[in-house]
Every structure is written in C-alpha cells, then in structure tokens.
Amino acid sequence: MKRSYLFLYTELAGYTIACLKALRKLDPDARITVVHFPINKEAPFQFDFAAIGSFRPVQEFVSYADLKGFSNEIQPTHIICSGWINKDYVRLCYAWRKKAITVLCFDNHLLGNLKQWIWKFTGAPVLKRSFRYLWLPGERQAAYARFLGFRKEQIRNHFYSCDLPVFMEKGKWGLALKANRFPKVFLCVARYIPEKAYTELWDAFVKWQELEPSEWELWCVGTGPGFESRILHPKIKHLGFIQPDQLDAVIEQAGVFVLISKFEPWGVAVHEFAAAGFPLLLSPQVGAADAFLNESNGWLISSHQQSDILSAFRLIAAQSDEALLDKATNSMQLAARISPQTWTQALLDM
C-alpha cells in the first residue's frame, strides 16, 4: 500500500523542505501533500517545491468542510500536524484518528505555569484522543508531553533537523580557511524581536569594546520589527535577511555563533551553525542547546545581565585559535547526529 502523507504546517522553513526531500528520496512512491500558513514576510525564504509533492496554502480552504473534503480526496495514511494553534488542523486529525496515523508535533517547553496546568485539563484531553504519536525535537518537549498525559511509548524524537549535508559542506570549506587564522567575529542569526535579546547582546558588546577594545566584531543576520531601531556601532554589522544559499561568505568570515534568546523553544539555526563548524555561545533558554552544546564546543551565559554576557565575551576572546578550531570541529560532530535522514526514519518507523 502506497503511503499518503498529509502535513499540516504553520510556517515553512528551509529545513522543512530539506526533510521533505529526504522523505521523497526514501519513500519515492508516496504521496506528499503539504498545507501551510503564508510565508513569513520577516523570513522570506525562497523554496524549491519541485519533485516533492503538492503544496497548498491554508487560506485556500475557506472552511473546515473544505479542508475535510480535500483530505477525503487524498486519503492520507499519515497526518502530521504542527502544533494546535489551528483548530481545524486538530479537528481534522480527530476525524481521521481511526483511519490514519495521526502525529502531533510541537516545541513547547514544560514550564509548569498556570496556563499549562489549565491546558492539561482543558485542551490536552482533546489532543490525547486525536493523536497516536507525538513527534518532538528534544527532552524539554518530551517532559511537557508526559506532563500532559501522553505515554512514553507515544513519543518520537528528531522532529527538527537542519539541511545537514549543505551546512556540513559549508563548514568543511570554512574550517579549511579558518585553520590559518580563526575569525574574531561573533555571528548572530535571528529575527529582530525582543525575545532574541538583541538589545542585551548589542549593549554588552559595546560596553566590552569601551572597556577592552579589541579586534572582535559582532555581525547580525536577520530582520524584524526591531531592525529600524538597531544600534549603530563601527564593530557591529547588520547584514539583514540572507537566503541560506547566500550564507557562504558569512560562514567563511565569522567565527563564533551567538544566540542568547530569552525565549527559544528550539532554534534550528543552532544546528545549522554547529554543522557549519562554529563554536557556540547560547543562553540556557535555547532548547537546541540540549542537543548541540556541551563543554567541548561552546559556552552558556549565566544570565542576561550585562556582566554575565561580558564575562562570556572575555572567556571566548581568551581562547587560542587552536582551541576555537577544536570547538568548531566538535560542533560539527555533535550536529551530525541529527539529519533529514533521521527525521525521515523517525516518520517511517511510525
């Protein structure tokens, strides 16, 4: 029997396409259908849908009846639902729960706050009736799933993966160039929103350069509401949004990847730049730190206090080029454990 996969996505990203291409390669006879939210204007990725399957913007379905009718046409054997923000998505999974393998994906952390306790007794019972499996990126999400009442055997891992082969290739090329002199450049790739702690990052970097001027620079890639109010400084570069296939020059010239978000359920960029051979400086709030950061390849800030971010800058600046290169190599080894192939295998195992 040929499989028919229906993906109910919110926002598409480049890594999503890489994983779907891997699925197409390992299950070439399958039917792949993707319903998705509009492309995010703050992350205007250019996607190549060729040879994957059918992609349908969710706004094409005016009502739940339209979506249900479409599902009857394609007869899915698997429905993979991204979160529960779209009630029609969840409703459709409930309708198909006895005829298809229904899978819920989310990246929420267990916080134990009042909102999550309320959801445990109001929304979670509907989810437990609607989905056979949960497909999650890491342990923080698995802890939340168990809190909601899902069983351990229902939980699968590796929901998020970067386009590993592409970033590993960039990393190998970049590290060959960096072997002679490791770039003294911090690189942050994130939307310009308060949750990414850009203001704290900029202020700490400027203060560090005032106290201890050095050759280090800070490069920022991204856009968003805070782009217009970005700080201007001779050693801070704002590069705007860059398509992934145009990142080569940045990867070759930057040295340490930084993401000190105040709220970051996962952060696939961490996986991308670990694969690209970057030592990592992260905050404890970044979910992907669990999979891709340890003492061999980077550092965690203690808090978002300026003094703690300054301490991290100083610690990194004191490293020799050889030590930074070793950490870069270790990042690549950690990144290699999760790939579009492990993503696909997790799905096929369901």
Automatic annotation (TrEMBL):
Pfam families: Glycos_transf_1. This is Glycosyltransferase. Residues 183-317 form the Glycosyl transferase family domain. SUPFAM superfamilies: UDP-Glycosyltransferase/glycogen phosphorylase.
